[in-house]
Design goal:
Distance between the termini: 60 Å
Oligomer: single chain
CATH topology of the largest domain: Rossmann fold
Shape: globular
Number of strands: 11
Structural class: alpha/beta
Low-confidence stretches: 10-19, 144-152
Length: 248
């Protein structure tokens, strides 16, 4: 292998590590050994990783500094589900994506997780390599199609405003807490008003192929979205047999 080729490879590796270092992850699980294993492997991949052994401990941290949360569900007095709801109801935190890592793997458990706003759901026991791959996939999805010029624009429909730069939704000037998926769905609608999106199109645009999305996941997110945007909820209409659209 030539020195030039080796130099190029080293440059790519260093750029990748530098890129990953921008992302800070919080692992919340009452299994200390598992936390240490996840921390070691994610840090090996170049991420910054902190751990908390309970939701109570995690909620005492400044969660605004984290790019992704990895949450166990069965923990102490505050479960992972409850912590996720607390995060989603806080306008300062609602945009943070999270992944559930849990032994609760029934269909109802997964539906509950995605209903709360989870970006992914990984059942225990799992492969550490799979977790790392899912985290990287989530980062790719979060950054996909970002255009610096478009990101500075607001999307406005009457009294409904989406601030794309700081990921906020304002309803008549008042901020409303949105999950990442709700934000992406509303953005899709406001950028394409009066266009009908099929379920498959919405899955492709908002969810990735790596995530198993249950049949009702889109319906649940649409229902929550309608409630959050008040009177404008009626603008999100269902075209039976086709999909959803935002009508002016």
């Amino acid at each position: 292998m030539s020195e030039i080729t080796m130099s190029l490879i080293c440059t790519v590796i260093l750029k990748t590590i530098k890129s990953m270092n921008k992302y800070r992850i919080l692992v919340v699980d009452d299994e200390e050994d598992l936390c240490e294993i996840l921390q070691f492997n994610l840090e090996t991949e170049g991420f910054q990783v902190d751990v908390a052994y309970s939701a109570e401990e995690a909620l005492k941290k400044d969660l605004t500094v984290y790019s992704i949360l990895l949450l166990d569900i069965m923990m102490g007095e505050i479960s992972g589900f409850k912590m996720a709801r607390i995060v989603r109801e806080n306008p300062l935190l609602a945009h943070i994506p999270f992944i559930f890592l849990t032994a609760k793997d029934t269909e109802n458990d997964k539906l509950t997780g995605f209903t709360i706003g989870a970006d992914d759901y990984i059942s225990k026991p799992f492969s550490i390599r799979e977790v790392v791959a899912r985290v990287k996939a989530l980062i790719r999805r979060s950054n996909i199609n970002k255009n610096p010029e478009e990101a500075t624009k607001d999307l406005v429909y009457l009294g409904l405003t989406m601030q794309l730069t700081n990921k906020k939704v304002l309803l008549h000037g008042e901020e409303v807490a949105f999950t990442k998926k709700e934000f992406e769905i509303l953005k899709l609608f406001l950028e394409n008003k009066n266009r009908v999106f099929t379920r498959d199109e919405m899955l492709t645009r908002v969810w990735s192929d790596e995530v198993i999305v249950l049949d009702r996941t889109i319906d649940v997110n649409i229902t929550r979205l309608r409630k959050k945007i008040g009177d404008y909820g009626k603008n999100i209409v269902t075209r039976l047999g086709y999909g959803y659209c935002f009508e002016e």
